[in-house]
Write a structure and sequence with these properties.
mainly alpha, elongated, Serine Threonine Protein Phosphatase 5, Tetratricopeptide repeat, 2 domains, about 300 residues
């Protein structure tokens, strides 16, 4: 495969004569990779013209574009299978057949590349959400969430209840400072569900019910399919001693995501409502379905209580 280091000029010459389809005139994969990353030092027009007329180079170029969309990958070359796929595309010889084939190829390639872009943007957004909250803020509130779960409802699967005083009493000043920082993050990232979840959890864990309520209502409206906020709504209802509302929220959450924390919370509520049979069934489901959950010791203790 030759190199198109000095692409031919495209001015004042018929388009059909700009790029021939002999093997030696296909650009090297390195040039297609550079074009996909916007790192070419010239000749972009000739390269794009060639891509519009050559199906096998378009196949290789599409592979580079799809790979470059994933921010976690920065390889210089695509997987060999992509290159082999592009080279395996048979070349047509007549102008009419080339034009027809080009139309079919672009019709198939454009939706696939568009789908790859959408997926990459979604993954990029998810990664951005996860990286928005500094670990120090999470660490400062983690003990508050675990301590508040003791004798109450659970915030998440990885927050096993921890009695206050087990590792020292949580510092109220640190929690308050963390909540102030989370509030600022929420103002600058109003569409970030992770920030909203941590802010609401922090308010609930420190019994700031009035502060938690408006943010929770907003989150439930904005993210109706996120089980985290239904679970937080159940915690708020439980703190207000509204067991019926807590049960309703937890059943909705379990329908969306049947995780260990939601099932344990539902069991606790059903036990307090007098249905020990369902409570034990839920405890048993958590024990058998989530054997590696950090909640296992806590759940077994609850299940053993009369």
């Amino acid at each position: 495969m030759g190199c198109l280091c000095r692409p031919p000029p495209i001015v004042d010459r018929p388009v059909t004569k700009e790029v021939s389809f002999e093997t030696q005139d296909h650009p090297a994969p390195e040039l297609l990779a550079a074009l996909a990353r916007n790192e070419t030092s010239g000749g972009e027009d000739a390269l794009r013209l060639h891509l519009g007329l050559c199906r096998r180079c378009m196949a290789i170029y599409a592979g580079f574009v799809e790979q470059d969309l994933d921010t976690s990958l920065h390889a210089q070359m695509p997987p060999q299978t992509w290159v082999e796929l592009g080279l395996a595309v048979p070349q047509t010889r007549s102008w009419q057949s080339r034009r027809t084939a080009r139309g079919r190829w672009l019709a198939a390639a454009i939706p696939a590349m568009a789908a790859a872009i959408v997926v990459a943007l979604f993954l990029s957004k998810e990664s951005t959400h996860q990286d928005t909250i500094p670990p120090s803020l999470k660490a400062a509130l983690r003990s508050e969430l675990r301590a508040d779960s003791q004798g109450s409802l659970l915030y998440a699967d990885d927050f096993a209840p921890e009695p206050r005083g087990t590792r020292g009493t949580p510092d109220p000043g640190a929690a308050s400072s963390s909540l102030d920082q989370l509030l600022e993050l929420h103002r600058s990232h109003p569409s970030n569900p992770d920030v909203a979840a941590w802010l609401i959890s922090g308010y609930l864990a420190t019994n700031q019910i009035r502060n938690a309520d408006p943010f929770l209502r907003e989150a439930l409206a904005r993210y109706p399919d996120d089980a985290r906020f239904l679970n937080l709504s159940a915690i708020l209802a439980y703190k207000r001693n509204s067991l019926g509302e807590a049960e309703a929220d937890l059943r909705k959450a379990a329908a969306l995501e049947r995780n260990a924390a939601v099932l344990v919370n539902l069991a606790v509520v059903r036990r307090q409502e007098g249905d020990e049979g369902e409570a034990q069934a839920l405890f048993k489901e958590v024990i058998t379905r989530f054997p590696d959950s950090p909640l296992q010791p806590y759940v077994r203790e609850l299940a053993s209580q009369p």
